[in-house]
Amino acid sequence: MKILIVDDFSTMRRIIKNLLRDLGFNNTVEADDGNTALPVLKKGGIDFLVTDWNMPGMTGLDLLKAVRAEPDLQGLPVLMVTAESKREQIIEAAQAGVNGYIVKPFTANTLKEKIEKIFERIEASS
Amino acid sequence: MSKQSEQQAILESARELVAKLEQGSTDGVQEHLDHITRLRETQLYQELGQLTRELHEALKAFKVDTRLNELAGEIPDAQDRLTHVINMTEQSAHRTLTAIEESLPVVDGISTRGQALLDRWQQFRARKLSAAEFRDLSKDLEAFLGSVQSESGAVQSHLTDALMAQDYQDLTGQIIRRVINLVQEVESGLVSLISLSAAQRGDETAIAADKPDTAKPAKKKKSAPSELEGPQVPGNESESAVKGQDEVDDLLSSLGF
Question: Tell me, what's the pLDDT at B203?
Fold first, then answer.
């Protein structure tokens, strides 16, 4: 399981990377915005995407839309981890096809729960 | 044409007109009258042009003033944001220090008890322990190994807490960025005001500085991110912001997630 972590703050990428390692996901790669993430995703081999929303360059929402528009990436599970907490934004992300939404600040347990829930749902539908 | 030369031209035309009339000639009288009227009209147009320009400048200045007013209203908000940044960094520092302070005695205890058991184990290896002493050692070893399990779990949880406490850098960074944008906008607004007032004084160098790209208020953030608010600041929360992860989960489940 290879996971791409996208956030413009390197500290947040490190936090998520460490939490994922605790959960047993050792294979992670990082990108600092949608523009750098998209080529990595298109190259293939990424099984799960964790992305922030508010980033310079390409935002996480635009990245999500680009992923859903790409035939090879359509089914990629995407978890958004962001400080954006307005209801209309959460709805917008849901409509764009996000698989999970975590508001910052979050706990290690929340990340664990959401990831488990996403994989449970994927297994149930396959 | 300057005002003086205009008056001179009118005066000359009038003199010629009077001279013609005195000579009893009607030749060219109409032309002279037309000429004087045209000169008068030119002056009127120039004054009207000047008035229009002044009105335009005044309106432009008013627009800058209005934006500056808005910005002034955002300054207290910026102060709240920066105060929130101080609070967040303080809390994170305390959270990290607490995690360290709670971990150190646990690690210290494991190390001390491990060392004592190692000493006894070495005595046993050197055949210096009685059977009763060995039974005690064996019991203590079992208890120690069991406690290492639970105590290292506690240390791990403190370390995760210290790790999570570092999220302040992302959250405060987003808040500080917004304040930097505000400061840039205030700066550009003030530069516009200065170049405008200088232009009205006729200061040529300041007029030269009044180029669209230096004088216009700091460019607004790109359309999409401008809607993004970043972390909510206590006391300044958006009405539609959720209070926490539970509300996010409720909202998503109401959407069928």
Answer: 56
Looking at this predicted complex, what is its ipTM? 0.80
What's this model's pTM, rounded to 2 decimal places?
Answer: 0.72
Nearest to A18 among B163, B228, B232 (CB): B163
State the Cα torsion B252-B255-B256-B257 to the nearest 10°.
-20
What are the respective helix, strand and coil percentages of chain A, to the nearest 5? 50, 20, 35
Cβ atoms of A44 and A76 within 8 Å: the answer is no
Decide if pLDDT at B254 tops 50: yes
B153 against B5, higher pLDDT: B153
pLDDT in tens, A60-87: 999 999 999 999 999 999 999 999 999 9
Residue A110 backbone dihedrals phi, psi, to 5 degrees: -60, -45
**Quick one: B168 exposed, middle or buried, by C-beta within 10 A (0-12, 13-18, 19+)?**
buried
**Which of A19, A84, A87 is closest, CB to CB, to B251?**
A87
Token pair, residue A85, equals 């907490």
**Whole-number Å distance between alpha carbons of B185 and B187:** 5
pLDDT tier, B211 (very low <50, low <70, confident <90, very high otherwise): very low
pLDDT confidence of residue B103: 96
- What does each C-alpha distance from A85 to A57, A65, A88, B169 come to in angstroms? 21, 19, 9, 18
Residue corresponding to tokens 């978890």: A79
**Residues B89-99, mean pLDDT to the nearest whole number:** 94
State the Cα–Cα distance between residues B60 and B73, nearest whole angstrom.
20
Interchain proximity A84–B229, CB inside 8 Å: yes
Q: Which residues contact B134 (CB under 8 A, 6 or more apart)?
A: B124
Contacts of A89 in chain B (CB under 8 A): 228
